[in-house]
Amino acid sequence: MSFLFPLFLLGALGVAAPVWLHLRRRQRQNVLKFSALRFLDDSPSPRDMPLQLRDLLLFLLRMAALLLIVVAFAWPILGSGKSAKQSETRIYLLDNTLSHRVDGAFDKARRDTARSIRRAGPEVQTAVVEIAARSRIVVDFGMSHEEAATAVDSLQTTHQRGSYLDAFRLAATLLDRSLGSKRTIVVYSDGQKNQWSENANVPPFLKDVEVILAGEHGKQNAGNLFASNTRTTRLPVRDGSAVNLNLDLGGQSVNRTADIVIRADGKEVLKQQIQLAAGQTPVSAQWIAGSDTWIRGEVQISGKPDALPLDNHSFFAVPPLNPGKIALLARSHYLRASFDPDILRGFWDVHACSSKGIEEAAKADKPWFDVVVAESDYLQSQNARELILKHLNNGRGVLLFVTRRTPLVDGFLRTFGLRMSGEKTLPERAQTFRYAALTHPALAAFTSPDFGDLLGVRVKKYERLEIISPEKATGLLYAGDGEPVLFETRGTKGKMLVFALDMAISATNWPLRPDFLPFLDHCLRYIRAMPEEQSSVEPGEIVFREFEDSAGKTFGLFSGNTEAVRAIADERGRLKIAAPDEPGIYEVRRLEGEAIRVEGLLSVSSSTAESDLEYVEGRPAVLGTWILPRTQETAAAGAPSPVTKALGDERSWWWLLIAGAALLLCEMLWLLNRRSLG
Amino acid sequence: MAASATPALRFEPQQLAALGNLQLKSRYLVEGFLTGIHQSPFRGFSVEFSEYRDYQPGDDLRHLDWRLYARNDRLCIREFEEETNTRVYLVIDGSGSMAYRSDRAWDDKIGVAKAMAAALAWLLLRQKDAVGLLDVPPSQRSTQFGQILRHLTSLKPEGDAGLDRLLAQANRLFHRRSMVAIFSDLLDPSANIANHVKELRFRGHDVYIFQVLDPDEIEFPFEDAAVFQDLETNTIRHVTPEKVRKTYLQRFEAFMETHRQLFRDLEIPHEVIRTDAQPYLAMARFLSQRRRKA
Question: What is the value of pTM for the model shown?
Answer without folding.
Answer: 0.53
